[in-house]
Amino acid sequence: MKTLTMLQAIEEAIFEEMARDPRVLTFGEGATVKWSQLRQAYGPKRVRTTPLSEGIIAGTAVGASAMGLRPVVDLLYAPFLTYAMEPLINSAGKQRYMSGGQFSFPLVVLVSTGVVPFYGAHHCHNLEAWFAHASGIKVVMPSSAAEAKGLLKSAIRDDNPVIFFHDIPLEHVPGQIPEGEHLIPIGKAAVVREGQSATVITYGRLVQTALEAAATLAEQGVSVEVIDLRTIKPLDEEAVLASVRKTGRLVVVHEASGTCGVGAELAAIVAGKAFSALKGPILRLTGPDTPVPASPPLANMFAPQAPQIIQAVQQLVG
Amino acid sequence: MKTLTMLQAIEEAIFEEMARDPRVLTFGEGATVKWSQLRQAYGPKRVRTTPLSEGIIAGTAVGASAMGLRPVVDLLYAPFLTYAMEPLINSAGKQRYMSGGQFSFPLVVLVSTGVVPFYGAHHCHNLEAWFAHASGIKVVMPSSAAEAKGLLKSAIRDDNPVIFFHDIPLEHVPGQIPEGEHLIPIGKAAVVREGQSATVITYGRLVQTALEAAATLAEQGVSVEVIDLRTIKPLDEEAVLASVRKTGRLVVVHEASGTCGVGAELAAIVAGKAFSALKGPILRLTGPDTPVPASPPLANMFAPQAPQIIQAVQQLVG
Amino acid sequence: MLLIRTLEDRLGALCREGKAPMIAASTGQEAAALGVIDTLGPDDLLLTNHRSMSHLLSRGADPGRVLAEILGKRTGYCQGKASHLHLSIRELGIMLTSTVVGAELSLAPGIALGASMQDSSGIVACFFGDGGACEGVFHESLNLAALWELPILYACENNNWQAFVSVKEALPTARIADFAASYGIKSQSIDGTDLEAVREAAQAAQAYVRKERRPFLLETHCPRLRGHAVLDPMHYVDAEEQAAGWARDPLVALSQRLAQAGVLSDEARAQMQREVDLEVERAVAFAMESPYPGPEELLTDVFA
Amino acid sequence: MLLIRTLEDRLGALCREGKAPMIAASTGQEAAALGVIDTLGPDDLLLTNHRSMSHLLSRGADPGRVLAEILGKRTGYCQGKASHLHLSIRELGIMLTSTVVGAELSLAPGIALGASMQDSSGIVACFFGDGGACEGVFHESLNLAALWELPILYACENNNWQAFVSVKEALPTARIADFAASYGIKSQSIDGTDLEAVREAAQAAQAYVRKERRPFLLETHCPRLRGHAVLDPMHYVDAEEQAAGWARDPLVALSQRLAQAGVLSDEARAQMQREVDLEVERAVAFAMESPYPGPEELLTDVFA
Ligand SMILES: Cc1ncc(C[n+]2csc(CCOP(=O)(O)OP(=O)(O)O)c2C)c(N)n1
Ligand SMILES: Cc1ncc(C[n+]2csc(CCOP(=O)(O)OP(=O)(O)O)c2C)c(N)n1
Ligand SMILES: [Mg+2]
Ligand SMILES: [Mg+2]
After folding, report:
1. Do A136 and C303 touch (CB under 8 A)?
2. Is residue D234 one of the residues assigned to a domain?
3. Which ligand 1 atom lies nearest to the CA of residue B123?
4. What percent of chain A has pLDDT over 70?
């Protein structure tokens, strides 16, 4: 085992995949400075900086992937994705289908997401649900440095476009990384804590929060199962349903705004397919339907906190 | 009463609002040809054509609305919105909040949505859920010409950004329009058919389909309540919950892809807040998680059809 | 060119009968397409936009499979999922027919990068309209192609119109080629109705791109003879401009040139037309008789 | 200028102590901001980007309320929801501080249209960086402003860097003003470190925009002395360039000029600094002591 921050784990994942497969390349605004190890190891053809033009960065990734390269591009912060939607949605997400399967688009888009004080709404906007709603695009969001490494390596090997959201507050958090080849499959959720009385499903940074809540609840004698989705699309419906069929109670938790978010999808899946197992309402704890405020106390209130999770579970089991 | 197609009703709504309020203006690619009546009546300053540049059309609408004008802009087909996301999401949707309420953005974006044979995935993509998920933006989708007129007039008077999606297949369908001032409030759903045994919630073109299904079910002795959401955001939670509390059964129907769609939100609201009233699972009938195919038989299969709605209701009441 | 014209006219007739969708015909722009594509090699790659028939056929696409695709049939190049507006043909290097204006410009640098990094000597020809030049991505594409020295022949067919908007209402310059200089990109702006002139300019342009591995912008001015899409009544285009357009019909120009040069007699021309008609009818029959994709196809080819 | 410099330096120190967020200081660009804004009238409107301190203070923003906003306090201009990166001040005509690069360019035409159509004689000054000029929307904005004859003074502060990317890696030209000509827009490219030169050029530029109701692009070349954000170690910028930057410090240039002209004695300069220091400390105290917004503010001002 060794210790890396999530950003270091991401660089290591790209590093290893670039070593493994000469088709992998990486580019983005300032990529040569941000990923200086990659640049040193793989040179200017495979590690490129770009102008400040998210649209053409994304478009170029899509074009290059259609040709069989495997670009990993860094679009920095989630709100900047708004400049890159056209090629990601209309080409990467649709052109395989529209062409009757002639093309595939093995590309990865790295984006920082999540709320931090002072950053505000032009840097912080959790947009994973958009890409889950669109077609032909996979969406991944790791909960730790090790998860980031394992999921990113799989994402780079995946033959489809993958949007890889990583939480800003986790970027510099160190974590233990398994030695050797470390791959985590896309599309499989992880039961990160087993339990009997209620299921809490979340992803990204809030997995830690959910585990804290579960630990507190365990002290109170309430056994909670915590699921880390890992992949938001394709969503591991089986894991979700299996857990809720066991516990009969569900709390879904994420930082993104609620309306039409991933939590809504989870609730709908369960209300449709595991209704008879449910012992009570499905509770959603999400960020509010507001932009992200910069002011620290407000920013710190944005995401659901452990006490709210505890209270929701208590409400269900009470 | 008079008869207009939905497109004519839209033009009439803008016409009346331009007469009423000198701050209303309209622009878009080819607007002077498409809205020739408006151009004739209101001249080149208030009815403008633009270059083929959705980004700056949207940005200009946002800027003009910040100054107190009330622009109505036509962005043509929903997939073209991907070029216009930056100003709509990051400025129109956030800048009121970020500025602590200094600005408001009274603008309307007109967009064609819905599936038609041959058009394919670059013209057809139901994206209303994206805007519902983002913050600070209202979303409206009318089910007929009269609804379009009444909702659009309210949208133009609303002090917030409103994305007004109108179904391509309805554009040339004639409908009866009430004489005189015809306003439909934003944020209120309509119970378009009352019933006791199950609730079907939908919006846009599929309201007609749901009504057909309900008529058939009535012949079979099943009393179905049909709700036309009219406004997707803000969503009329009260009307939704009231109906489900009465019927105990819910089928949600829309053409957009299912994952993180409006149907997921409806299911989550009900599973969270009216769980005890539910007599069975919440069934979702939505478009598949695929791009829209051009081939006529595939395009015609994309949206849920009346027989599927009938079957879903039968499954619930059976 | 005769094939393109005949096929598109036939499609127009089918559309009027309700048997085919309304296509954006390339009528008037055939020489601009053929002249460029004639100079390309088999390793070269193409991207085009909604007005792509001239590009598809110039590149050697099978009219039957093209028509089948347009009608949404399983035997089409994209199994019917694309129809006319998104028709790509990988085996011919046609990577994209884009109907979101500008997507072709967005993908071109990546396609060129992919070719270059995988040691192909191929270049990329990216066809787009004057309307495409209004999208910001046009500039982003030129900029990246210049910076990364990508072998792209940007081929702008400037037909003076972007749907119902005249280029005069949309840009302060009528010459799209003028934008290239800001990026240090060489360019040329020519009459796109003269097949020989286009071929000559394209020959030089593609040779430059191929040798220097740098972008070049070739602008061809042509009339848009059938309007935005085939049933467009064009009441927003004044009659004089329409007449002037037809006076520049590239097919008439070519026929006259060949006739004057004595290489195409009236009889040979008529014979050629008969053969093309036959080919088109065969294609129509093939497309009409082809089956639609089965319902299971709705869900296939979303993910690889 | 002294106020801007002093306040930003103080913020840098606070940041190092963990008491303030990391701002993108305008150090080196003060003259480029003040010289332009000095020439504007009260009806004029401004948009700016992440590097906005120089614009806010030049326009007369209250340092206490600016600092309070930066610290996320309720007494800030945006009630703490904006912090430094999105600070707008409607009462001063500051319509947007954008941190999504290019949003200022995107909104500028609409702001100008709004002013013009409501019979304001005001013009719009849109401040942006060389990085903003890489976004496609820069071109879309210039194009629309030219076509619709909108009174916008595009003020590009070209500081040679876009975060960690040199302008040389990002554009084939080092002069952003060169792009204006394609749209028939007049432009000028000047040294942005000489306050008098900027003021003179801006005076002419704003007069042109005001009189002709047409856009103008004024580019000011300046050094980015504190890096991308205040704690940036700048190891990617070579030492020579950094030194050359400091040699062009606009504040030093101004002080020297005033001293040489005999209008600013050393003593007067020191006295001025003391006054500014006092003002800044008062502002810091006001900001520090101000309350945060209450939790209910999380949900307010989403919709009008
Ligand atoms: C992004 C986008 N905006 C608008 C449209 C609608 N539209 C289709 S073709 C067209 C005109 C395109 O003009 P140009 O690029 O000059 O091509 P031409 O039709 O003249 O061949 C427009 C506006 C579109 N398809 N995509
Ligand atoms: C759309 C977008 N892309 C990337 C960034 C990250 N970023 C912040 S400032 C900056 C550099 C901007 O350069 P320039 O416009 O020249 O302004 P400067 O910082 O030099 O003043 C970048 C890339 C951003 N904020 N927005
Ligand atoms: Mg054109
Ligand atoms: Mg800069």
Report:
1. yes
2. no
3. 25
4. 100
Ligand nearest to the CA of D129: 2
Choose which residue among D22, D29, D48, D50 to substitute to test ligand 2 binding: the one with the highest number of ligand atoms within 8 A of its C-beta.
D50
C-beta separation of D166 from D138 below 8 A: no
Judge: A52–D134 Cβ closer than 8 Å, yes or no: yes
Residues of D in contact with C178 (CB under 8 A): 182
Checking if the pLDDT of A212 tops 90, the result is yes
Distance CA D11, CA D54 (A): 13
pLDDT above 70: percentage of residues in chain B: 100
Q: What CATH superfamily is the domain A2-177?
A: Thiamin diphosphate (ThDP)-binding fold, Pyr/PP domains (3.40.50.970)
Q: Is C216 close to ligand 1, i.e. is its CB under 6 Å away? A: no
**Is residue C143 over pLDDT 90?**
yes
Query: Mind spelling out the 3-state secondary structure of chain B?
Result: CEEEEHHHHHHHHHHHHHHHCCCEEEEECCHHHHCHHHHHHHHHHHEEECCCCHHHHHHHHHHHHHCCCEEEEEEEEHHHHHHCHHHHHHHHCCHHHHCCCCCCCCCEEEEEECCCCCCCCCCCCCCHHHHHHCCCCEEECCCCHHHHHHHHHHHHHCCCCEEEEEEHHHCCCEEEECCCCCCCCCCCCEEEECCCCEEEEECCCHHHHHHHHHHHHHHCCCCEEEEECCEEECCCHHHHHHHHHHHCCEEEEEEEECCCCHHHHHHHHHHHHCHHHCCCCCEEEEECCCCCCCCHHHHHHHCCCHHHHHHHHHHHHC
Closest-CA residue of A relative to C79 is: A100
Chain A and chain C share a number of CB contacts under 8 A equal to 145
pLDDT of D173 strictly over 90: no
Which residue from B minimizes the CA distance to A92? B291
Mean pLDDT of chain D: 97
pLDDT tens digits for range A74-126 = 999 999 999 999 999 999 999 999 999 999 999 999 999 999 999 999 999 99
Do residues A228 and A202 make contact, with C-beta atoms less than 8 angstroms apart?
yes
Question: Subunits that touch chain D (at least 3 Cβ pairs < 8 angstroms)?
Answer: A, B, C
Per CATH, domain B190-317 is 3.40.47.10: no
CA D91 to ligand 3 centroid distance, Å: 44
| D159 alpha carbon – ligand 4 mean position (Å) | 5
Under an 8 A CB cutoff, do D114 and B48 touch? no
Residue D232 falls inside a structural domain: no
Every domain of chain A and the residues it spans: 2-177, 190-317
Question: Nearest C-alpha of chain B: how many angstroms from A253?
Answer: 13
Task: Indicate yes or no: CB of B120 within 8 angstroms of CB of C83.
Answer: yes
Would residue D181 count as lying in a domain?
yes
User: Under 8 Å CB-to-CB from C126, ≥6 apart: which residues?
Assistant: C46, C47, C48, C104, C105, C108, C141, C152, C153, C154, C155
**Per-residue pLDDT reduced to its tens digit, B33-90:** 999 999 999 999 999 999 999 999 999 999 999 999 999 999 999 999 999 999 999 9
**Contacts C303 to A, Cβ<8 Å:** 96, 136, 138, 159-160
pTM, two decimals, is 0.98
- Looking at the 3D structure of chain D, how many domains does it have? 1
Any domain includes D263: yes
Q: Which atom of ligand 1 is nearest to the CA of C163?
A: 11
Pocket test for ligand 1, best of C162, C165, C171, C224 (most atoms within 8 A of CB): C162
Whichever domain contains C148, its CATH number is 3.40.50.970
Domain extent, residue D249, equals: 2-224+242-292
Q: In CATH terms, are A2-177 and A190-317 the same topology?
A: yes
Provide the chain A residues 127-186 that lie in CB contact (below 8 A) with chain B: 129-130, 132-136
Catalytic residue at B123? Answer: yes
